[in-house]
From TrEMBL:
Enzyme Commission designation: 2.5.1.17
Keyword Flavoprotein in record: no
Keywords: ATP-binding, Cobalamin biosynthesis, Cytoplasm, Nucleotide-binding, Transferase
Family: Belongs to the Cob(I)alamin adenosyltransferase family.
Residues forming coiled coils: none
Keyword Transferase annotated: yes
One GO-annotated biological process of the protein: cobalamin biosynthetic process
Residue ranges constituting the Cobalamin adenosyltransferase-like domain according to the UniProt record: 7-169
Protein name in the entry: Corrinoid adenosyltransferase
The reaction(s) this protein catalyses: 2 cob(II)yrinate a,c diamide + reduced [electron-transfer flavoprotein] + 2 ATP = 2 adenosylcob(III)yrinate a,c-diamide + 2 triphosphate + oxidized [electron-transfer flavoprotein] + 3 H(+); 2 cob(II)alamin + reduced [electron-transfer flavoprotein] + 2 ATP = 2 adenosylcob(III)alamin + 2 triphosphate + oxidized [electron-transfer flavoprotein] + 3 H(+)
Classification via Pfam families: Cob_adeno_trans
GO CC term, one of those recorded: cytoplasm
Length: 187
């Protein structure tokens, strides 16, 4: 259980931050960048929830909780013999996203062009969240080049951006449909 009684500690005033295993790294460390972008995505999903209701809000709430799991996973380095059982993303979290993508996509028209990130307020915010999810995935992939990470994290982030894409399309379905790219329209 998390218990925060004091919000500031002053321990980060020198440009260092603590990781989940107690070690300290620079705030510019690729690990901090990766989970920082995940945190940014989570905040953006809070904005998406302002334009959601019912099933969409429930799904976004679930994803926000999962993103805290992703952040906890990323902030705790992989160890051979950890002193405690770290929270790790599991395959079932990605599998839920895949099932949701299939469910939502089954009700959408087949795409015949790329989709512009526009439309209803909900769709526009979901498209924005999709781009931040892709950045979180890139930041995490960059971390994985030099540091071992849980293999399920990258899959989760990759599938999440796909899910946010179909959710944006679904949000536009009742608002006039997708805003489609018109190649070369303004030449």
């Amino acid at each position: 259980m998390v218990k925060l009684t004091r919000i500031y500690t002053r321990t980060g005033d020198t440009g260092q931050t603590g990781l989940g295993d107690g070690s300290r790294v620079a705030k510019t460390d690729p690990r901090v960048t990766a989970y920082g972008t995940v945190d940014e995505l989570n905040a953006l999903l809070g904005i998406c929830r302002l334009h959601a209701g019912g099933d969409l809000e429930a799904a976004l709430t679930r994803i926000q909780n999962d993103l805290f799991d992703v952040g906890a996973d990323l902030c705790t380095p992989e160890q051979d013999d950890p002193p405690f059982e770290p929270l790790r993303v599991v395959a079932a979290q990605t599998e839920w996203l895949e099932a949701e993508i299939d469910r939502v996509n089954a009700n959408l028209d087949t795409l015949r062009s790329f989709v512009l990130p526009a439309g209803s307020p909900a769709a526009a915010h979901l498209h924005h969240a999709r781009t931040v999810a892709r950045r979180a995935e890139r930041d995490t992939a960059a971390l994985a080049v030099t540091t071992p990470i849980n293999e399920h994290v990258l899959g989760y982030l990759n599938r999440l951006s796909d899910y946010l894409f179909v959710l944006a399309r679904d949000a536009n379905r009742d608002a006039g449909g997708d805003v489609l790219w018109q190649p070369g329209e303004n030449r």
